[in-house]
Amino acid sequence: MSAATTRSRTPDRLCAEAVDLARTAAEEAAAPGVVGEHTGLLSEGDRVVTHFFECKELGYRGWRWAATVARASRAKVVTLDEVVLLPGPDALLAPEWVPWSERLRPGDLGPGDLLPTDQEDLRLEPGYTAEDEPAPRSVMSHEMAELAEAEDADVTPGAPAVQPTTPVRGSIAAVAEELGMRRARVLSRYGLHVAADRWEESFGAKTPMAQAAPATCVTCGFLTPIGGSLGQAFGVCANEFSPADGRVVSLSYGCGGHSEAAVMPKPPQPAPPVVDETKVEPFPLHPARDAGSVPEATDEATAELGHS
After folding, report:
1. Strand-pair partners of 43
2. Do 148 and 216 meet the contact criterion of CB atoms below 8 Å apart?
3. Residues 6+ apart with CB under 8 A from 39
4. How far is the C-alpha of 19 from the C-alpha of 35, rounded, in Å?
5. pLDDT at residue 166, as a whole number
6. Of residues 91, 112, 111, 95, the one with CA closest to residue 103
7. Contact by Cβ (8 Å): 299, 260
8. In angstroms, rounded to a whole number, what is the distance separating the alpha carbons of residues 243 and 215?
9. Are the beta carbons of 30 and 57 closer than 8 angstroms?
10. What is the spatial distance between Cα 124 and Cα 129, in angstroms, rounded to a whole number?
């Protein structure tokens, strides 16, 4: 260990005694009444010492004012170097900053929010390469070129995202739109696997609901198939009483709302009415006067009012 290193670890006597100078500088830099007691010092090098003072500022628990003083070689006057507010060993610090793309969680997107997608997002890949000319060794290259020339077809350069809203008839963009390939980017294989893992975790065979289900979704009448490669393993539930209604579910998922879990018996139908046509029941054409619910009136005044 060199002598210079040994001297740098030993605080300079004059600098260590300059507590009042360091306190005055800290009080000038801070608000009134927030500089507390002297808590210690640290030797920063030859004739360079930092004095620490307690910080009483609200919200800065564990922080301390650091005033660094220095002295030139063979000089007896100590001068101020700098004053800063530094966190101590047990200081209350703000959490480490995390980019928004890493803080975002499913369900955070609300009405009116826009979620930008990274240009290099691994979950997406170009919908089509937008190469206007076929490969040089393509079997159909010359034939397609002659066909395009005969039909007077125009080739629209650029990716689908920069194409006009209504593509020119006969252009590659028009054909791509007709085939459903107008999207600038589609899911990559990585994006498909990530989505499949997420759906399998939420509504897959290992969930408690599926473990207690009487059968899987692949035999359920409420399962709505989906297209694409994901349709081989997933579908959409259309049972309003199922916890997965309107969700993408694995074909190995299941719940108690399976269409064939418990088929309810048909309610018994009442017997048709039997009409006895052999018996005759006479009905008088004019009912008797005493057959009504109101007794016959004997008063002439009451009879004039029409009571029966």
Report:
1. 49
2. no
3. 52, 53, 54, 64
4. 13
5. 55
6. 95
7. no
8. 15
9. yes
10. 13
pLDDT digit string, tens, across residues 77-131 = 999 999 999 998 888 888 888 887 788 887 777 777 777 777 777 777 776 554 5
Reported as a pLDDT band with limits 50, 70 and 90, residue 50 is very high
Kind plus residue range of the DSSP H or E element containing 272:
none
Sorted by sequence, the CB contacts under 8 Å of residue 251 that are 6+ apart come out as 216, 217, 218, 223, 233, 234, 235
pTM of the predicted model as reported, rounded to 2 decimal places? 0.43
Q: How many CA atoms lie within 13 A of 289 on its CB side?
A: 5
Q: Is 228 left (phi over 0), alpha (psi -120 to 50) or beta?
A: left
> What is the residue-averaged pLDDT of the chain?
78
SS (H, E, C) 163-226: CCCCCCCCCHHHHHHHCCCCCCEEECHHHHHHHHHHHHHHCCCCCHHHHCCCCCHHHCCCEEEC
Give CA angle at 188 (182, 191), nearest 5°: 120
Query: What H or E segment, with its residue span, contains residue 4?
Result: helix 3-9
Distance CA 265, CA 129 (A): 58
Which strand ranges, in their side-by-side order, compose the sheet holding 48-55?
A: 35-45, 48-55, 63-71, 78-87
DSSP state of 245: B
pLDDT in tens, 174-200: 666 666 566 667 788 888 898 999 999
Q: Which residue has the higher pLDDT, 246 or 284?
A: 246
- Which helix (H) or strand (E) element contains residue 63? strand 63-71
Q: Which amino acid is at 137?
A: R
pLDDT in tens, 144-173: 455 545 544 444 455 445 555 555 665 666
Is residue 64 within 8 Å of 52, Cβ to Cβ? yes
Main-chain dihedrals φ then ψ at residue 114, nearest 5 degrees: -115, 130
3-class DSSP state for residue 292? coil
